[in-house]
């Protein structure tokens, strides 16, 4: 063998030894093992870049002219834990594996599932989160709306004089009295629209009304119902005869309240945003009307003891109307329970000039005498000052950035108004009796009840 041949075989053997070394190193790096450089000579690295050097891109990128061993350059790395260990539920070992629960109660017990309380607390917080108010505005967001509308379900307390309207002949206890005309609960409506005039200030227009309080009481008999107009047949001769010796009496009382307001409101927010509120000044117009009706029907037979052998219909009407206009002041105060949930007090107070009047008509009609009655009288007073006070306790729950639900309790007081019962005058100017028109405007009314509605922002 010549020197040249010996040199060629030496080179071939060196190449084979290098290839075997590379294959051995790759085989030792199993699936899923970290890619740390093995302790191999420098010639182990492609291109002989030196110990610790990274392979050239052409050595390990697919399609770059070199097919890298499958278990080396693209070996799967250990999976990283996406969840911290303290959030992971403990997994019992094979020796401590817990038995299957025999019941649902055992499964949810602390012994079987020690983290059950933690899970139930999370579920409870999730449920509370579902019913929590919209709170993105934060605690410092001022109470504001563009349109407010709500229903009011109020009761009316009218402490007027006690009047006996109807009695049976010879009876002491009345069949119909003013105690039978106590009002019940009635629905109403209130709506407020706002117009912003500057930062924290606005004009408000409010309507309150659509109440229809009404109460009536009836009595039936057989030609034996007598009225207050004849003092229950104690006047001789009797008064308005169609109301006596009757077989049907009915008395009804109705109350209607309507109010319009125009206010300027200025809002403020406390330094910690725990409290906020506003003050207002404006003008208010209120109309209050009450109607009293007393209807009688007499169908008498031919009897000498009766007033007339022919029956008839009697009708008494008393209308009391109040037109009240004047200035008012007020404000509100809100406590932030948590962002989106607030509790507040609202109040308004007005001194109103009252142009009040009462109108009374008493009449009867039968075949013999035709229409018989008094000349209707009307009395007006325009120098009365009426006090109106309004207060409410409210809770607001914000549903989203546009809608807020509102509920509360409302109080309204009116002092110094003309009422129908207080202006009822039973004097009849017949058979020598005189009638003097009268007028009373010192009555009071108290409304109270629950409210429910919403506030909208555009």
Describe the overall structure:
11% of the residues lie in helices and 46% in strands. It is mostly beta strands and 458 residues long. It has a ten-stranded antiparallel β-barrel. β7 and β8 (275-298) form a beta hairpin. The model is unreliable at 25-53, 56-66 and 71-75 (pLDDT under 50).
Supply the key terms.
mainly beta; Lipocalin; 4 helices; ten-stranded antiparallel barrel; 14 strands; 458 residues
In short:
The chain is mostly beta strands.
Q: Average pLDDT, to the nearest integer?
A: 79
Q: How far apart are the termini?
A: 102 Å
CATH topology (level 3) name of the largest domain = Lipocalin
Which structural class matches the secondary elements? mainly beta
Q: Give the helix proportion (percent range).
A: 10-25%
CATH class of the largest domain, named: Mainly Beta
The total count of helices amounts to: 4
Radius of gyration: 47 Å
Sequence-ordered SSE layout with sheet pairings:
Layout: H1 3-28, H2 57-60, H3 104-107, H4 116-131, E1 147-157, E2 164-168, E3 176-177, E4 185-198, E5 201-209, E6 213-227, E7 246-269, E8 275-298, E9 312-338, E10 341-366, E11 370-373, E12 377-398, E13 403-417, E14 443-456
Antiparallel strand pairs: 1-4, 1-14, 2-3, 2-6, 4-5, 5-7, 6-7, 7-8, 8-9, 9-10, 10-11, 10-12, 12-13, 13-14
């Amino acid at each position: 063998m010549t020197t040249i041949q010996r040199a060629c075989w030496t080179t071939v053997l060196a190449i084979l030894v290098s290839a075997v070394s590379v294959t051995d190193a790759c085989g030792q790096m199993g699936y899923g093992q970290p890619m740390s450089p093995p302790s191999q000579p420098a010639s182990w690295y492609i291109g002989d870049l030196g110990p610790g050097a990274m392979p050239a891109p052409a050595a390990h990128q697919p399609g770059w002219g070199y097919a890298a061993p499958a278990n080396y350059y693209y070996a799967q790395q250990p999976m990283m834990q996406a969840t911290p260990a303290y959030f992971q539920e403990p997994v019992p070992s094979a020796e401590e594996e817990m038995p299957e629960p025999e019941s649902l109660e055992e499964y949810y017990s602390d012994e079987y599932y020690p983290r059950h309380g933690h899970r139930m607390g999370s579920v409870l917080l999730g449920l509370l989160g579902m019913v929590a108010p919209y709170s993105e505005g934060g605690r410092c967001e001022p109470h504001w709306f563009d349109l407010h509308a709500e229903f009011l379900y109020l009761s009316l307390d009218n402490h007027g004089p006690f009047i006996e309207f109807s009695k049976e002949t010879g009876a002491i206890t009345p069949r119909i009295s003013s105690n039978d005309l106590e009002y019940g609960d009635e629905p109403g409506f209130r709506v407020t629209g706002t117009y912003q005039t500057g930062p924290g200030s606005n004009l408000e227009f409010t309507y309150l009304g659509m109440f229809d309080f009404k109460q009536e009481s009836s009595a039936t008999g057989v030609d034996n119902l007598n009225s207050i107009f004849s003092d229950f047949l104690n006047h001789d001769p009797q008064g308005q005869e169609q109301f006596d010796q009757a077989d049907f009496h009915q008395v009804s009382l109705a109350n209607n309240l309507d109010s319009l307001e125009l206010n300027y409101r200025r809002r403020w927010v406390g330094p910690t945003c725990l409290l906020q509120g506003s003050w207002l000044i404006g003008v208010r117009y209120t109309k209050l009307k009450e109607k009293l009706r007393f209807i009688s029907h007499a169908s008498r037979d031919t009897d000498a003891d009766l007033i007339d052998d022919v029956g008839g219909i009697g009708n008494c009407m008393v209308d009391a109307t109040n037109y009240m206009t004047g200035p008012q002041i007020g404000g509100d105060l809100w406590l932030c329970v948590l962002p989106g949930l607030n509790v507040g007090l609202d109040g308004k107070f007005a001194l109103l000039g009252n142009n009040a009047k009462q109108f009374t008509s008493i009449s009867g009609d039968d075949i013999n005498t035709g229409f018989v009655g008094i000349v209707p009288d009307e009395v007006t007073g325009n120098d009365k000052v009426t006090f109106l006070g309004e207060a409410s306790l409210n809770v607001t729950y914000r549903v989203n950035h546009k809608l807020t639900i509102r509920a509360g309790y409302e109080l309204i007081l009116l002092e110094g108004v003309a009422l129908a019962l207080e202006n009822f005058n039973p004097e009849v100017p017949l058979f020598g009796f005189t009638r003097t028109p009268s007028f009373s405007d010192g009555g009071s009314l108290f409304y109270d009840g629950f409210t429910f509605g919403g506030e909208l922002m555009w």
